[in-house]
Amino acid sequence: MTAMNQTNRALLDFIAHSPTAYHAADNLARRLAGEGYQELSEGEKWALERGKGYFVRRNLSTLVAFRVPLENPRGFQITAAHSDSPAFKLKHAADMAVDEHYTRLNVEKYGGMLCATWLDRPLSVAGKVVVRTAGGVESRLVDLDRDLLMIPNLAIHMDRTANEGKAYSIQKDMLPLLGDERAKGKLAALVAQAAGAEEEDILDADLFLYCRTPGTVWGAEEEYLSSPRLDDLQCAFCCVEGFLQGDHPRTMPVCAVFDNEEVGSGTKQGAASTVLSDVLQRVCRCLGMDGEDYLAALASSFMVSADNAHAAHPNRLDVADPTHHPHMNHGVVIKYSANQKYATDSVSGAIFRTICRRAGVEVQTFHNHSDTLGGSTLGNLSNSQVSLNTVDIGLAQLAMHSACEIAGAEDTQAMIAALAAFYSTLVEDKGQGKYALDSAR
Length: 441
Ligand code: CO
Description:
The protein has 441 residues and is an alpha/beta fold. The protein is 25% helix and 29% strand. It contains ten helices and 21 strands. The two termini are 28 Å apart. Cobalt (II) ion binds at residues 82, 231-232, 261, 307-308.
């Protein structure tokens, strides 16, 4: 296998085993533990060893990893991505019988998906359950890991205008079918079995539907890959791999993968929470740095907020900016928006372009079509707690928020190379808008 294929195989394997943000954070934790990283608990006092790597999870769905440098850091080099993707979330006691011959499940929307793409595909259920224990409660991850549900389309014969634009009612059109009348009560039993618990001991749960379509590499030259949840697990994967590969002796490398980006990041574990600032400040205190040292370090710090970008669509160039057309397999995309939905500015853009040029990684530019609102991401929200030079980037992809998305097969490696180079660079604030970019390579 070529290095590119190996990387994509590892990426698709990671995504296949990460049906929810909980599983994504769990798999990243395993990857880091395999490299000798030690998990810290937020509820205990930390004793950190210089030269060692650590990670913290909050809510089991957000992960922040870092390595303690031998000397106190001049700054932090931070990448950030998100662990969640749009999905349907199960409501409590989700069984809904209909017509005495069907068992459906009651769901609501998590984030903004393309509803139509979830229809007529095998789906399953995964997430986190909270189980009663002798002394309290315990969280457990579950994945039913089988073709279990489908949301059936209405036949064209019963909806002659279906191809002329359609409004989906989540409550009416998007409820998945679990089985016939015999399926009543089965979901709760399957979840309890997967959790290794008695049904009555499951006190609460966060359970989501997920798409079972396997990831694949395709195209005349195998130039594309498709998979559920490429937004943003492709970037989360690249951030961790880049974090493991790059290093600069005078910076502290940090990698944050946040939950809840798709619903605005405003949770205790989201990018707008204190989780990143809590970790950075605790590390500084452990290293004997004071509040003054922390703020000075932030000035010589840099964040790469990595969340996938829109490639120009072959059938709909009209919705893209007239002159900036990001393409798959042409490297990392830097995202700009005048209203600062993206945190990139001229300084962070210039610094990141320099890092990519030094690494030999192609850079593209994204602007929204001036008449569209566009998306948002986590960079500017994270800046409300930890304010530092930030660039918003992503890999070009098609069909964002579809149940199955499309990206470039060569781009995963390009992003890892760019981020490894980023972690090998110190971005030192020299005052009056000047920055020195010291590369350790
Ligand atoms: Co995203």
